[in-house]
Amino acid sequence: MPGWVPSWVLKDVWPSDCQDSKLLPTDSIQDAIRKNDQKKVLLKLVDIIEYHIMTFLSSKELANAPENHCVPILEVLKPRDGKRYVIIVIPLLRTSLNLPFETVGEVIEFLQQIFEGIRFMHEHRGLSRTQQSDECGGGFHAADPSITPGWRGKAKQCFSRTKRPLQYYWIDFWISASAL
């Protein structure tokens, strides 16, 4: 962006203490806020084969199956050429292992959902690589889930997975695309 100046240049702080110094885990995702409902989302660049796998697993016939733990696609943005890549909009998710498990029951629930999702994908010829759980606590920053969205302090876990069970999602399907 023309004229942009890093925030740490204007203050007497370490760059690592500033939100604009943090990188997301991969260059194929970007956090955003959806205009129509102000919901925090991720924009994910996927190749067209991965996109077809994800839309198949999100189809009306499969989306509402309780054993389907594939991340829901909220919207699709297609670049002008749109032949090789598309941008999918998915919920802002936190990595499943970012929060500690507090009970054996939480671990069992996590594993049950993971294996249920694997079985579902294999039955429908979709394979996946990574899982994430939905947002937990008072919010977090996409680049660093241990920090609040406004980069004003540590993100807090307000409840345990036992008190508020989480839904776990499979999110990456590029290995499936490579296997085709």
Uncertain runs are: none
Mean of the pLDDT scores?
77
Instruction: Specify the oligomeric state.
Output: single chain
Number of DSSP helical runs = 4
Can you write the helix and strand succession as a string? EEHHEEEHEEH
Quickly give the structural class.
Answer: alpha+beta
What is the strand arrangement across the widest sheet? 1-2-4-3
Backbone CA Rg: 18 Å
> Quick one: how many beta strands?
7
Question: Which keywords apply here?
Answer:
four-stranded antiparallel sheet, flat, alpha+beta, 180 residues, three-stranded antiparallel sheet, 7 strands
Report on this model:
This protein is α+β, with helices and mostly antiparallel strands and 180 residues long. It has one domain (7-179). Helices cover 22% and strands 18% of the residues. The strands form 2 sheets. The protein has a 4-stranded antiparallel β-sheet with strand order 1-2-4-3. A 3-stranded antiparallel β-sheet has the order 5-6-7. β1 and β2 (40-47) form a beta hairpin. The model has no long low-confidence stretch (mean pLDDT 77).
Summarize the structure.
With 180 residues, the chain is an alpha+beta fold.
Task: Give the topology, please.
Layout: E1 29-33, E2 40-47, H1 48-57, H2 60-63, E3 75-77, E4 85-91, E5 93-95, H3 104-123, E6 131-134, E7 168-170, H4 174-179
Antiparallel strand pairs: 1-2, 2-4, 3-4, 5-6, 6-7
